[in-house]
Amino acid sequence: MKHKPIVYPNKLKEKRLQCNLTQKDVSAHLKFATENRISRWEQGQSIPSIYNLLKLAKLYNVHAEELYPEADYSIPVVHQQIADSLLSSASGTFYIG
Q1: Dist. CA 22–CA 44, nearest whole Å
Q2: Contact predicate 41/7, CB 8 Å
Q3: Buried b or exposed e, range 60-69, using 16+ CB within 10 angstroms
Q4: Interacting residues of 95 by C-beta distance below 8 A, sequence separation 6+
Q5: Are 83 and 64 in contact (CB under 8 A)?
Q6: Would residue 20 be called left, alpha or beta, if left means φ above 0 and alpha means ψ between -120 and 50 degrees?
Q7: Mean pLDDT computed over every residue of the chain
């Protein structure tokens, strides 16, 4: 019996289009070689890391919660000011372990 793949509903494509950006623009901003990852995120096939989610929110000028409105935010979410601070102080590569 095959399992149905999990789909992560999101507003990534909608917010990207509101900013008049292409997937290629976004992938370049995130320093990805191709737009494949952006496509998979927008289709709900995978989800971005917290760091990339915050970078997307800043790029689209929205709160991170707006990108995944159906997510369970019962765990406290980083405030936008803290997120901005993290993004502005991050130097080079940021690893989530």
Answers
A1: 17
A2: no
A3: bebebeebbe
A4: none
A5: yes
A6: left
A7: 81
Question: Global pTM?
Answer: 0.72
CA distance 22 to 10: 17
User: With contact defined as beta carbons under 8 Å apart, do 41 and 48 qualify?
Assistant: yes
- pLDDT tens, position by position, 25-58: 999 999 999 999 999 999 999 999 989 999 999 9
Distance set, CA 8 to CA 28, 31, 41, 56, 61 (Å):
23, 23, 8, 16, 21
Q: What is the H or E stretch that residue 33 is in? A: none
Cα–Cα distance measured from residue 78 to residue 92, given in angstroms and rounded to the nearest whole number: 21
Specify whether the CB–CB gap between 50 and 82 falls below 8 A.
no
Question: What residue type is assigned to position 55 of the chain?
Answer: K
Token pair for 18: 């509101």
